[in-house]
Design goal:
By secondary structure, the chain is α/β, with parallel strands linked by helices. Among the domains are: 20-205, Rossmann fold; 487-715, Vanillyl-alcohol Oxidase, Chain A, domain 3, CATH 3.40.462; 750-888 and 909-939, P-loop containing nucleotide triphosphate hydrolases (Rossmann fold); 943-1130, Rossmann fold (3-Layer(aba) Sandwich), CATH 3.40.50. Helix 35 links the parallel strand 36 and strand 37 (1019-1024). 32% of the residues lie in helices and 22% in strands.
Amino acid sequence: MATLTSLKHSLVQRVQKESSKQPLSDAQYTAGFDVLVRDSERTTYRDFIIPQLSQLLTSLLESRTRVSVLEIGPGPKSVLECLPSQLRRRVGRYAAYEPNALFAARLEEGLCCMSETEGALPCLESAADIRRLPFELGSTDSETYDVVLFCHSMYGMKPKRSFIERALSMLAERPGGGMVIVFHRDGVLDLDGLVCHRTACFPAGVVRVADEDEVLDCFADFVVGFSVDGNEAVRNDWRKVCRALGRREEAHPGHLVFSAPNVMVAFTQHATSLSGLTALVPLVEGEKTIKNREARVHRPAAVVRPTEVQHVQQCVRWALDHGVGLTVVGGGHSGHCLWPNVVSVDMGAFDQVHILSAGVDGGNHSGSLVVAGAGCKTGDIISKAMAAGVTVPLGSRPSVGAGLWLQGGIGHLARLHGLACDSIIGAVLVSVNSSEILYVGHVPSQHRPAGAVRPENEDDLLWAIKGAGTNFGIVLSVTFKAYLAPTYLVRNWVVPLSNDVEARVKLNEFDDLVASKLQPNCSADAYLYWDANQLHLGVTMYECSTNSLTSATHAPTPMSAVWGPENDVKVVDSVGLFETEMYMSGMHGGHGGDKTSSFKRCLFLKHIGEATIADCLVAAVKTRPSPLCYLHLLHGGAAVSDVPADATAFGCRDWDFACVITGVWPRDQDGTEAASSAVAWVYSVAEDLLSLSSGVYGADLGPDPRDDALAVKAFGSNRQRLARLKHSVDPRRVLAYACPLPKTLTEPKLIILVTGECGAGKDYCADVWVSIFTQTSLTACAVSISDATKREYAVATGADLSRLLYDRVYKEQHRPTLTAFFQEQVQQRPRLPEEHFLDVVHGAGEVDVLLITGMRDEAPVATFSHLVPDSRLLEVHVQANEQTRRVRRGYHNGDSKLTNNITPTSTTSYHHPSIAFANNNPGTSAAETFAQQHLLPFFHADLHRLATMVRSVPDFPRPSISFRHVLGIAQQPGGLSLCTSLLLTYFAGSWANVDAIACCEAGGFIYASALASRVNVPLILIREAGKLPPPTVSVVKTASHISSVTASRSGEKRIEMESGVLRRGARVVVLDDVLATGETLCAVLQLLGDAGVGAECVGVLVVAEFPAHRGREMLRRRGFGEVHVQSLLVFGGA
């Protein structure tokens, strides 16, 4: 499918005389633009532009309540009009440069309405400022904006870097900065060293044009940027070109289709900061040689080549300081090792290979080790290892680098020794969160850089590096377990296939009679390809042995019995093995004579001889767009599948063959329709095989959105664990363009933990509450956390899982042994409750409300809230009298006394559930009323409005911390009044029973004083020692979270309150601005206790809670678990 760029080039070539070119009038430009955006472009807006712009604006709005936007060339309608309502209402000021008078008039008409309930941007503080002028470098516009938006490309703006720099100069200087956002259609956006904050691509964009002369005339004028009115010969030529290059689709008869890929690039004030990095780290000299065809067309901002560990650390610090990403270049085989307008880090200087004999490093590891730098190629490692008589099970190509070993690595020793990542026992890397040098696993002491430390999450990092290692830091070196170097006997068969039936028969023979029967030291790869006008099945069998092998003495194989003698036989060592691949020597003249480019995606298959899969494979080769395309089936099983799926990040273990779908075309056709057709074929075949596959190889996948569907099946059941770890170790997304991991699912806004005694009706209530939420347009679901334990119990004991899940009587019979089983599991796996909780949360999908039953933990909010720091957790304790519970559980008079199903996992003090519900009455009425009165209010618009007043301040009080300015609420118009009203309303107790409100300086003073005035109770002030007149009561207080991260304020201090201001046993509400670590609150509660007010007399209100710091857990550990804590807002971060 031709792109708009290639179409433009062909059209312009048809114009012989410059005098034939006439500038487009506003009417002609408008007509052409309308053709372009009609129908087809709506997909690009819906699936790419609107989601990308929404994400960027949402991130900006974390640090401000309104944004100002300058749009360059918006056309007849601002793209902002298509945003969700909650974003459109946050645009406070809008201006635009639109030189087309017709467009400007339509734009102004759409934005002119200023009423609160109508209009595209209903909350503009002044009328939209539409300037009927082009955006020029020499403009004298002195206004500043939060966002400068180029939504319809930058055609005609040259040099583009200068226009972006002009836009950058117009960004407002305020906390959180601003953004220049560019959407550019069709073509590479080379910006000469500008560094982007974020970028994304949309290669699937298309333009569909009606195949009518008048429509094609308008369209062609717009594409070339001029008109040839009056030159009918050129007009006719242009129509012919459009019809020749446009593709026709059955789904859209009467239309021509052109490719219109789109790219988004966002810049901040740091876009011109590259010189700060290149002053510290050397640049690559000359052109960087990259193997991958995809990567070669990208234009990175720069490629730096660190030569020492400190250089890599400086790259990470620079990226963190400027809010940008990095890519890493190893062997250059990855399609995303270079990325447009992103700095690439070439690790080529880290190319040392060290072979260590058993025990020489002073460790306890038996056998030889190989320590390889991240710049090493597979061939270098194998050559040096073989010289020492050992080898490592790496891949089959000598030029691939660290990306292969870290993301799997499928080679000819995989069936005997496992994947390359399975042999990794240690690694050294630079953290992309702190720039520290870390080492994990077994790293010989002499190969640990100075200053390297073991991280607290060492086990998780080593686990992730073994299969998804390009995502979790910049790896400097890897330590492999080595094996004795074998000799290989290589045999080849090539079988011509006369028809589809024979192809299916031969694939079935190969799968059933050959591949499944081979010993682990043997593997058989297959190639399905077209050559000499016929389909062929080629097979290469590899037999390895540490004993001598010769071609003259080889034994017959199952293959020989089925297909006869082999075509050729070779005996090679580990280095010679690289040249035995059939696609390198036996197909298409040796892979097109080494003058080809290729594109690959790989899926894992079982039972390739089954009719459905075999037919799909054969059909794939028959529909190839180029004679050179083929399918490569790499043999798996044996040692690959012996490793448990959760033992490493490489979770796809259950497969017989890795099917590499390989699109190939002549290298001189790079960038043409031949190349794009081959790529489209690869994705089409992958889509057909996806539902038949047992997984996808993640090593090939990149930021291309066409990889999203494939990425869902990469990493198997480990996907969510990897996503959580990625969020933890790379929160700033420095490695945003590495092999894609699933994004951490948006956690529910509200998670309700439904607890209670057996028979209280927890599941019933949860179902009722789900129905109440869904009636208000919220998405909600209820799940049982105990189902996971029941499944494991059923497997271990043979119990009937279906009856455990759905038969109450059967479940009650198994309850004692089920409980004992769970307790035993927790002893063996202390983190099991957390694992079950996260599995339930992420398994529920993206819902607004998640209700979880079957909880076995005391104080579940304190236990689990830090795992989902962006969600509000509530515990609703369902109660019922014993007689009611007895009836619900099927007990009769005389039966034994009921027992509780709570299984404490710790021995801490009593806790206070968020809310209690008495469920004694039959029917749904009481449960429905409870939900309406106590649960739905958490979605009230006033709470959302209050949350928008808390802006996010990046890198405060130190880099890498995103500070939530909770006190800033009081500085917003109406903020203090709104907050006070919400505190008054959401308090779970009765204000009539409250004797006083206590608060600690300084944040608590602001909100507590306003609330005490409204409630008309005394305000008890708690201050640093020495600031109140005697007599006082005082206690030691450890530094709060923010104070502890500020260098000038750390350690302990004393806080005090005046003696006698509270009577003993007074009922007190403690109010503070935030709950983070809980240190301040614990000190206040201790102080109140010393003053005669016990924890049982105290309730706590906070404006904002930060669960990541585990404040509730701290309260419980200090003996204050019974204190009822309520928070208006919940935020992740600081």
